[in-house]
Amino acid sequence: MDLLHKVLDQEAHLSPSELSGLYEYDIFTLGDVANALRTKLYGKKVFFNNNRHINPSNICADVCKFCAFSASRKNPNPYSMSIDEILSQAHTAYNNGAKELHIVSSHNPNYTYEWYFELFREVKKALPQVHLKALTAAEVDYLDRISNKGYQKVLEDMLEAGVDSMPGGGAEIFDEGVRKYICRGKVSSKRWLEIHSYWHTLGKMSNATMLFGHIESREHRIDHMLRLRDTQSKNGKAERKEGGFNAFIPLLYQRQNNFLKVQAFPSGQEVLKTISIARILLHNIPHIKAYWATLGLNMAIVAQDFGADDMDGTIQHESIQSAAGAKSKSGLSKQELISQIKDAGFRAIERDSLYNELVEC
After folding, report:
1. Residue in 47, 43, 31 with CA at minimum distance from that of residue 311
2. Of 24, 123, 295, 351, which sits most exposed with the smallest number of CB within 10 A?
3. Which residue ranges does the record assign to the Radical SAM core domain (predicted)?
4. Side by side, which strands form the sheet with 45-49?
């Protein structure tokens, strides 16, 4: 039995080294298998939502070599938003149709622990009908570091303040050797997984990301996916209420304005193989998101034929990836996103943040 069939049978326990052999299959073989899996789950549906990204500050206590967003020599324009400024952006986003606010920031030493929870309460008070997705596991870890309250207490305070779900940022690559080079001092892979696991036991959903296309190996990517799959399986025990990972999001590294200095960049085939392998391996994570803000709109559409079933959303404004060269700063109009999906032969399904289908467009 060849490797691909062993993986599909889900019987053999294979190592990341062995599974990295999936990359040796041609793109069409992987794509056909991944597409068959996504078609079995969702047919020709491609999901998106109407959302707004808000990034309160770019002043950061940590230094990640891959980051072009944080204020540094590469980006000498520090800013910090007030709660009132954030509320103003939130109201504008809601008036423009946003059903989700995605609030992710730097690790700003000038913001207090209490500031974050006041922000969340004010947002939910002003816009109770909007889904609040906020704080990566890296931010949760940072709040634990500055408060010494424990990440469990941070997550419980998030829940009490009205946070509805967590984004998947801060995962980068789980291999600690790679992390030591690209994001020394940031949340460890073990702690990242513990934070999401505890959030899931509170009955809440989150996403999971992987930053790829920099110094990591194919084996590192496979290891990353397997750790997510194992975490999802462990959290499927009886003590879990309703929480878990909604989606896996492979984020393509953006190479401008940062200190990583990566020379080789993944080919389109390498990107699509990674997405296909994610769909093949992550049988217990429902959705694979082709995040157009890092892949580009055209590649994200093509990825829907290679195992992905989601595009993310309108975003309205994007600061983190665009700082590193992605063409995502102004987001996309809902109509443009719908047109691109339908022109490619798919069904455009507007969803909410938890993947409940709202309307076919």
Report:
1. 47
2. 24
3. 46-286
4. 310-313, 45-49, 347-351, 357-360
Model-level pTM? Answer: 0.91
Q: 60: annotated binding-site residue?
A: yes
- Using DSSP bridges, classify how beta strands 357-360 and 100-103 pair: parallel, antiparallel or unpaired: unpaired
pLDDT tens profile 293-348? 889 999 999 999 999 999 988 875 444 443 444 443 456 788 888 999 999 999 99
CATH number at residue 83: 3.20.20.70
Confirm whether residue 66 is marked as ligand binding: yes
Out of 62-66, 163-167, 305-309, 320-324, pick the least confident: 320-324
Nearest Cα to 54, choosing from 90, 118, 103, 123? 103
273, part of any domain? yes
Number of compact structural domains in the chain? 1
Is 18 annotated as contributing to ligand binding? no
Residue 361 annotated as binding site? no
Residue 298 CA to its chain's centroid (Å): 19
Domain that holds residue 242: 15-360
